[in-house]
Amino acid sequence: MAATEHDHAPPRFYVSNDVTYIDSRRGKKLLKYQEYTYNFTYHNAKMNTKLWRCPGRTRGCKAKIIVDCHDKVVSGTLEHDHPPPKYICVNGMYILL
Ligand SMILES: [Zn+2]
């Protein structure tokens, strides 16, 4: 076996295609990652990264996620103090239940 072969899946945290973008009913873009959604908060032009925060922060949730210009997750705090939000998809729009 070549040394570059792994016998396990890559760590999920670094799998870029786990990040998806969804449109909420209000036309706002949300980032969805591992069942949780995040609101766009800040674009770091120097690093070309974007900070997204959990909407639950108003209730004290500290979760956030940082992606680079290729939508690759580079950093973040993925621990939430609440269960994932429940969405239904209607005509390509996500509606929070
Ligand atoms: Zn949260």
Give me the side-by-side strand order of the main sheet: 6-5-4-3-2-1-8-7
Mean pLDDT: 84
- CATH class value: Mainly Beta
The CATH architecture term is Single Sheet
Q: What's the overall geometry?
A: globular
What oligomeric arrangement do these chains adopt?
single chain
Rg over alpha carbons: 15 Å
The fold-level CATH name is N-terminal domain of TfIIb
β-strand number: 8
What percentage of residues falls in helices of 4 or more residues?
under 10%
Portion of residues in beta strands equals: 35-45%
- Individual helix count: 0
Characterization of the model:
It is a single chain. This protein is mostly beta strands. It is globular and about 50 Å long. The protein has a single domain (15-96), classed as N-terminal domain of TfIIb (Single Sheet). A hairpin with a 2-residue loop joins strand 2 (29-33) and strand 3 (36-44). The protein contains no helices and eight strands. The chain has strands at residues 20-24, 29-33, 36-44, 49-53, 64-68, 73-77, 87-90, 93-96. It is 0% helix and 43% strand. The chain starts with 19 loop residues before the first strand and ends with a strand. Bound molecules: zinc ion (ZN). Zinc ion binds at residues 36, 54, 56, 61, 63, 80, 82.
